[in-house]
Amino acid sequence: MVGTGRSEFRGGRMHEEKYRCYWDLLSRIPSLENPDVNVTEETFEFNQRFVSHAQARLLKGGRKMDVASYGVGLKDQALMLELLFLPEPALGRKRIEDWFTQDFFDTIFWYIFTTMFAFQKWSSLAEMRRYMKRFMHLVPGLNHLGGVMRTKYNQYDSVVRPIVRWLSERGVKVALDTRVTDIDFNLAADRKTASLIRIEREGQEDEIVLGKDDYVFVTNGSITESTDNGAWDRAPRLLGEDQAGAWQLWKRIAKKDPAFGNPGVFCDDIELQKWYSFTATLHDSTFHDYMEDFSGNVDGTGGLVTLTDSNWLMSIVIARQPHFPDQPKDVKVFWGYGLYVDRIGNHVKKKMSECSGQEILEELWYHLKLQELMRPVVEAGKVNCIPTAMPYIDSLFMPREPGDRPEVIPEDATNFAFLGQFAEVPDDCVFTVEYSVRCAQVAVYGHFDCGKKPLPVYVGAHNPKALIEATRAISK
Question: How crowded is the C-beta side of 408, counted as CA atoms within 13 Å?
Fold first, then answer.
């Protein structure tokens, strides 16, 4: 978003207090607005002022649902406990729907869980197990998003820009319009060494020969690869693997050694991995004023609002305004997404994947009973909505087994590492910024004599008090 009030952003990540590696990193990065305060301090101070406590987490028929009870039956409660104590390798590539009863997917708990984390019924049971163990301490408050933290502004301005500035001040070079197409390796029985990086720079092929003191850290795979934006009057395109450079790179690398993972497990079924988001920009406060009055939450304290009777299973988030440092005072923004994008809408008789920004908002107004209220605002041209197609957004949740994700530092690797959501880090959860930072720390501390180790993963299920309180909450 720029100062004129035009916006295009794909969404943000929720944070929580136990992201040990993430907050450790950001404690070294000065805030853009106040260099005497680091990003960790800025974020914690912001969340002390705007505490997450959703009062309209789930809606049905335009009305708030009672979420005091999670509604999980005794059989599924027992299956939850059993899942926690099974070793992860025993689960293989099982899906969530392979484990729980069908009734589980109609519970308040599932509606909250699936929309908060973007799991689907066919997602990895092993990853759900990690989430349940890792975030056990948050389970009693999931129904009101208790413990969820946000940055002061969107994460590009609050996190990415401060890090980029910090790196630039230390001489780090960022090469734009440059794409890595392959990496060559010298592979011996007891030694694996990256020797050359093949790139395309400004449309021209080139090579970077690696010296004896060079290291290569590779982000294998990407959940935002091939993202496409639509417009107010146009649906986004669903782009395929032929335009997915990050996945093509990993597939080329993976052919060279079994230790480099199995990318096809994650990227070969777009229909199970895609969902669509949308960003609305309003030169008017009518919608935000209504939602504040209806929900009881001032902006920035309510978080996710899910429409459980939406065929698209649509959710929206109203962040604290302004969401951008240069956002004009008369501009409001919000973000939303749908999980079931190939279903016909309840009001707009089209698939969400076929809808323009205008049509998506028409469906939203219908569910919130706001059609008459918002009609003059829309007709006055004070609303814009940009839909976004993300074909690989749920690829990290695809069912997997040991070996499908490479180790951060594969055995016998001398000068390279894998980073991001598709490298293996025991116990931690993908689709979190914590996972990405932890990968980087494992790579750096493993290859260089820093005298450091990543801080241990916080696993809520290892805290007896958290386990007891979560069990009580689930059994209500």
Answer: 20
